[in-house]
Write a structure and sequence with these properties.
Length: 291
């Protein structure tokens, strides 16, 4: 499979609505509801050495996300797990990024979508570090986003819904133009929440502190890192974090399927070291996903 070609022009195979098709033939109609109204949900997963990390948890979350959006995934969790492995094998991949995505089709156009069919595709491709790997030792740079994470009464924040990522793209574009790697979201109340696509952890006085996920996804990687911290006798506190606290943290890192465990070296005007707790949890995570 060609890894440097545009994503819609690559060679390989994608599972689409019950069959494996040529990569370039995996297309949808321009009048699909998901394209016009953002009615789609997706997952991001990684395969390491032939094993999809937290495969079942991701399949279950896709079903949960769809249910929140009043959609129904057309196959079971068990079938979804099986197909993910099949498409990786078909593409000759043992280390890969996997993208299941479900969306409403074009049977109905307008805000009501009662008559639409839920379509499903699963793609997989070779993908290395999400952020610049050369920044591993010094950390990436973040800047506070111009947009904020919405309240759970204003958006389906516990669903991995495609439409919610519009402000992530806008924010990432904004800060990249200023030389930053990613944006840091505050939430609707002004508390620190997460980056555009990864959860956030901070370290102070030997304790790991992470925002309460009450208006953003409680990431699968986030949950894994919290468990790893406990196994390594690192105390964990989940609470609201105010922006003025950022000045006093010693270490900060991001977690996510794509980001894995990525150190942060700078947020706005504050600088951080890639310290011992970041190293410990990054190493523990890298060992776990390949175990």
């Amino acid at each position: 499979m060609t890894g440097d070609a545009p994503f819609d022009q690559r060679d390989g195979y994608i599972w689409l609505d019950g069959e494996i098709v040529e990569w370039k033939d995996a297309r949808i109609h321009v009048l699909s509801h998901g394209l016009h109204y953002g009615s789609g949900v997706f997952e991001g997963e990684r395969m390491y050495d032939g094993k999809i990390f937290k495969c079942r948890e991701h399949s279950e979350r896709l079903h949960k996300s769809a249910k929140i959006l009043d959609m129904e995934i057309p196959i079971s969790v068990e079938e979804l797990d099986k197909i993910k492995y099949e498409i990786c094998e078909k593409n000759g991949l043992t280390s890969a990024y996997i993208r299941p995505i479900a969306w409403r089709g074009g049977e109905q156009m307008g805000l009501s979508a009662q008559l639409t069919k839920t379509h499903l595709a699963i793609a997989a491709w070779s993908w290395g570090s999400y952020f610049d790997a050369s920044k591993r030792d010094n950390g990436i740079a973040l800047k506070t986003a111009p947009w904020r994470r919405p309240a759970p009464t204003c958006a389906p924040t516990q669903s991995k819904a495609a439409g919610l990522y519009m402000i992530a793209t806008l924010s990432k574009h904004s800060v990249e133009k200023e030389g930053y790697d990613d944006a840091l979201f505050l939430d609707h109340r002004g508390f620190v929440s997460e980056s555009t696509g990864a959860n956030l952890f901070a370290v102070k006085d030997g304790k790991l502190i992470t925002p309460t996920p009450d208006c953003f996804l409680n990431g699968i990687t986030r949950q894994t890192v919290i468990q790893l911290a406990k196994e390594n006798d690192i105390p964990v506190e989940e609470r609201h974090i105010t922006p003025d606290e950022l000045e006093f943290f010693e270490e900060i890192f991001l977690t996510g399927t794509a980001a894995e465990v990525t150190a942060v070296g700078k947020i706005d005007d504050y600088n951080y070291t890639v310290g011992p707790i970041t190293h410990t949890l990054r190493d523990a995570y890298e060992t776990l996903v390949r175990s």
